[in-house]
Amino acid sequence: MNKLKKWGIAVFSLAVIAILTAIGGTYYYNTEVNGYPDTKNFADKIDQLDGSSKQKTVLIFHKPGCPDCKKARRTIKKTIKTHQKTIDYVVINVKKSDAQAYLAKYGVTQVPTVIALKGNQVIDSTSSNNNKTIAKVVAGD
């Protein structure tokens, strides 16, 4: 095998390893570190909330690596799954740069924070670590 072929195989192998590492790292981040079903374009969804609407929307603020967020994650995901046909959910990673404006707008100072809205009006919220309280707000009750 000539030198050029050996280099080509080495570069190809490194590229495959890099791609597999990136995929594995993303999977680990999404399932272990984050694990929340983050909403893409959450800013657009929040900005489109209509004050005259009766539609319920629940905002969920979390931070990857937060131990309290990790404790609440199972309850939040289970409740979302149960109510996703009747309630719109917007899940926000507070580490995203777009999130800062909404942290200020809704007075979020700790995570996890769950805010239930009817239209664009706040009807309930919690920053509790109690899973029953979190489930109640996530369910829009």
UniProtKB/TrEMBL annotation:
Keyword flag Isomerase: yes
Source species, domain of life: Bacteria
Domain Glutaredoxin per the UniProt entry, residue ranges: 58-115
TM annotation in the entry: 7-29
Keywords: Isomerase, Membrane, Transmembrane, Transmembrane helix
Molecular function as annotated in GO: isomerase activity
Name of this chain's protein: Thiol-disulfide isomerase and thioredoxin
